[in-house]
Specification:
Blueprint lengths: L1 H30 L2 H22 L11 E4 L7 H8 L4 E4 L5 E6 L5 E8 L6 H41 L16 H31 L1 H14 L4 H26 L10 E4 H13 L5 E6 L4 E4 L1 H18 L3 E8 L4 E8 L33 H11 L3 E6 L5 E8 L2 H5 L1
Parallel strand pairs: 6-8
Antiparallel strand pairs: 1-4, 2-3, 3-4, 5-7, 8-9, 9-11, 10-11
Organism: Pseudoalteromonas luteoviolacea S4054
Pfam family, one: HATPase_c
GO cellular component, one term: plasma membrane
Amino acid sequence: MLRLLASLYFFVFFSIIAINQSSEYIWKNWGNQAPSELGYAKQVAVNLRDVLNTVGIDNYPEKNNLNIIHINDVAWFPEQRAALNNDDVVISFDSNDNYQFFMLLNDKSTIVKLGPFAPKPNSILTKYTFKLVSFSILALLLILWLRPLWRDLEQLKIVTEQLATGKLDIETKPSRFSAISTLTQHIQRLALQTASLMQNQKQLVNAVSHELRTPLARLKFALAMLAPKDPQQVQAMNQDVVEMELLIDEMLSYARLEFSEREMTRKEVNFSELVQAQIAKTNTSSNKQISHHLEPNVFVDGNDHYLARVIQNLLQNAEKYGEQQIMIELKKDNNDKIILIVSDDGPGIPEEKRDCVFSPFTRLDSSRSKETGGFGLGLAIVTKILGWHNGKCWITDSHIKGASFHVSLPISERLKLN
């Protein structure tokens, strides 16, 4: 960052100096016409002095229009006095930048004064055109300085977009002339390492899926062969094997979510029908009283498969920990959001632990442990899927003495326009 600021400071500093010096030279020689104007007027004064010396001042027809003074009537600077004695024309300026000429005739005592004359005003268009050109040159130089920086920032944008969408074949083309080239190289190296880690994770998930399932299948087969000898012991071992299979399935399901977003297709989804379908599915296997109030035809933009997984996980969570009843409510708020509320009458969740339950493998206490099913990944999956859909989930106390899970999602863009 220090290198970037120093580079920008010195570039602007020296560019302004160069442009100012060039502008002053060009204005003095081409833009400002005052020197040529004075030169022309001075030549006219010299010609008049020669005429007066030739014909005599008393014989000059326009004598009455001349301003004639004695040389001693003016307090001359030494250099001005010397210039007059050398037959030079002395030019002086007043406080309004008006100029006047003084000429000494051959008698060395008579001074003819011409003026004061107002200088010819410079064209306003020329003046501002000259300024515009100067600032345009400075802007062009800044663009040349910023171009490598802009290219590096575009490279970083492409790298981050590739990582976000799961593309691991990252190619980079850093610029050697950018002020942040070192930073860019570090970030790109980090991106390549991240891509490598993601690739290794993907390979690990695939390996676990195959390598763990194979010995578990052999173990289940061996337990089936041993069942007649010790049924109770074999049954307990079978339960442990089933639990390991469920844990592996949950872990693989959660791990695969890391690579699912780039493959996810989006469309307009009738969220009301999606919730109704999941409630019907839960009703077939639940012994609890499920009541609901759903606003009809609530649409969101997203993937119906993953949104259904969110609803399913929340209903399963309420089914596990609720005692007698589950309540579901779906409505729209005033901020172009839909709100889904799933409440149960279970033990509830302490306020200080509500953020923790969305972390993977989190189980709070004995009332919410593996004995009731699950491994602490259901709500973590909910959080990840909602993140893909610009949604969020939070927990409050339920009015039926348990926990209420609130889900917020943006409504469909089509409904916003209506």
